[in-house]
């Protein structure tokens, strides 16, 4: 998993592109454990900008206990998610970005809701066990 690409993808999914560190860490953990697909995807995106550096390039700024993506960060992310140069050169090549490349907010929402359901089941099991005791 490419850390820097993941940070950009997470921040762009938040309102105003800002996330406090606790939320950022939680979402990173969710995505890091979501499977090989996410790691492969971030590797593909990172390959398009090999010298990516969030802070020295001004893509992300530290602000009030969290991080916020800048306009430049959004532009770099759009570039990474854009179609490859080879596809632009070929006539008749599809310009569509696969849905899997755009699904980060949906993926986060789905994994958050799955995590929430797991926590509710655990809580219910604990309550049931303590009621029996």
Mind sketching the topology for me?
Elements: H1 3-12, E1 18-20, H2 21-32, H3 36-47, E2 60-63, E3 66-69, H4 71-81, H5 85-89, H6 99-102, H7 104-132
Antiparallel strand pairs: 1-3, 2-3
Biased composition (Basic residues): 112-125
Region (Disordered): 88-133
Features:
single chain, 133 residues, mainly alpha, 3-stranded antiparallel β-sheet, 7 helices, 3 strands, 8% strand
**Would you list the SSEs in sequence order as H and E?**
HEHHEEHHHH
Number of helices: 7
- Mean of pLDDT: 78
Number of strands: 3
What is the SS-derived class?
mainly alpha
**Strand order of the main beta sheet, please?**
1-3-2
Helix content: 55-70%
Poorly predicted ranges: 85-97
Strand content: 5-15%
* Radius of gyration over all CA atoms, rounded: 18 Å
Question: How many structural domains can be distinguished in the coordinates?
Answer: 1
The largest β sheet comes out as: 3 strands, antiparallel
Query: Kindly, what is the distance between the CA atoms of the first and last residues, rounded to a whole number of angstroms?
Result: 44 Å
User: Based on CA inertia axes, which overall geometry fits?
Assistant: elongated
Region (Disordered): 88-133
Biased composition (Basic residues): 112-125
């Amino acid at each position: 998993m490419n850390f820097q690409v993941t940070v950009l993808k997470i921040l762009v999914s938040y309102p105003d592109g800002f996330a406090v560190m606790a939320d950022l860490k939680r979402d990173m953990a969710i995505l890091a454990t979501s499977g090989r697909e996410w790691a492969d995807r971030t590797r593909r995106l990172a390959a398009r900008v090999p010298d990516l550096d969030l802070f020295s390039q001004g893509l992300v700024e530290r602000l009030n206990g969290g991080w916020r993506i800048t306009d430049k960060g959004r532009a770099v992310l759009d570039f990474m998610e854009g179609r490859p140069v080879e596809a632009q050169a070929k006539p008749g090549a599809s310009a569509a970005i696969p849905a899997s490349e755009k699904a980060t907010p949906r993926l986060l929402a789905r994994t958050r809701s799955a995590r929430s359901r797991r926590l509710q089941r655990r809580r219910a099991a604990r309550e049931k066990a303590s009621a029996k005791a």
